[in-house]
TrEMBL record:
Complex and partners: Homodimer.
Protein name: Isoprenyl transferase
Gene this protein is translated from: uppS
Annotated source species: Paenibacillus aceti
Gene3D superfamilies: Decaprenyl diphosphate synthase-like
PANTHER family: DEHYDRODOLICHYL DIPHOSPHATE SYNTHASE 2, DEHYDRODOLICHYL DIPHOSPHATE SYNTHASE FAMILY MEMBER
Residues that hold substrate according to the record: 41-45, 53, 57, 85-87, 89, 91, 208, 214-216
Positions of the catalytic residues: 40, 88 (proton acceptor)
Length: 262
């Protein structure tokens, strides 16, 4: 077990001792309220195994289940998963079609258990371009879980941060044009409340898998003060222990928000 921890903890990320983290250990410190994940590396995971890329996405779906259960165990309030970006339409049609079928497949397999676990499903993205079957699956999940009060599982589906900021600013510009507000009165809160993440806290912790060190148009406004955690692991290999390691590292960080430590 110790060997496993050592292999995925990057230099400098490793805690004082390679502890085998338990829920109880983590609950002694502050748990991030909102964890957001850029689930990357499905394609490379598949290629490494000589499989078609879509098999990587299918395995990625299983990692979604593991991450959800682990987030729920820790009492995390919101788990946002970047499932499809506004730029992912550039991929071959076969891959896009597969990715658009995943929510349906995932929910057919897991929705009953998620309902039972008091998980509330939410979606953050532009529905206009999504196929009807994808929208229908998401709508059903949102409807069936709307009264749940536990973990919010927020799928970023056809999501793009620049687009959401642009839309927010456009809406405010219309209000200015209509004489409802003056340009000088525009506040950060007014922009924020018009983003697709409206009503959710900003992510405290942002995780990206696969060794890429970038944000890829994901929650650019909301992650202004998020703690970032990167791992070389490909998303289909991500499991409970990796979420726990990211949370443990989060607990060792000092958040200053531009101020000074107390
Ligand atoms: C990035 O890896 C991953 C995606 C674009 C899709 C992520 C989707 C899933 C993990 C499944 C989502 C599940 C649900 C339930 C909605 P990549 O394909 O870009 O990998 P690569 O960089 O190695 O090619």
């Amino acid at each position: 077990m110790i060997k496993l921890f050592q292999s995925w903890w990057k230099k400098g990320d490793r805690p004082a001792s390679s502890e085998n983290l338990s829920v109880a250990d983590l609950l002694e410190n502050n748990i991030p309220e909102h964890v957001a994940i850029i689930m990357d590396g499905n394609g490379r995971w598949a290629r490494k195994r000589g499989m078609p890329r879509n098999m990587g996405h299918r395995s990625g779906m299983k990692a979604v289940k593991r991450a959800t259960i682990a987030a729920d165990e820790l009492g995390i309030s919101v788990l946002t998963l970047y499932a499809f970006s506004t730029e992912n339409w550039k991929r071959p049609k076969e891959e896009v079609d597969y990715l658009m079928a995943i929510p349906q497949e995932f929910l057919a397999l897991e929705l009953d258990e998620l309902v039972q676990k008091n998980v509330r499903i939410r979606m953050m993205g532009y529905t206009k371009e999504l196929p009807d079957h994808t929208i229908a699956a998401m709508k059903e999940a949102i409807e069936r879980t709307k009264n749940n009060t536990g973990l919010i599982l927020n799928f970023a589906l056809n999501y793009g941060s620049r687009r959401e900021i642009t839309e927010s600013v456009k809406e405010l510009a219309h209000s200015v044009q209509a004489g409802e507000i003056s340009a000088e009165d525009i506040t950060e809160e007014m922009i924020q409340s018009r983003l697709l993440s409206s009503g959710l806290p900003d992510p405290d912790l942002l995780i990206r898998t696969s060794g890429e060190l970038r944000l890829s148009n994901f929650m650019l406004w909301q992650t202004a003060y998020s703690e970032l955690w990167f791992t070389d692991l490909y998303w289909p290999d991500f499991g409970r222990e990796h979420l726990f390691a990211a949370v443990a590292e989060f607990q060792r960080r000092t958040r200053r928000y531009g101020g000074l430590s107390k």
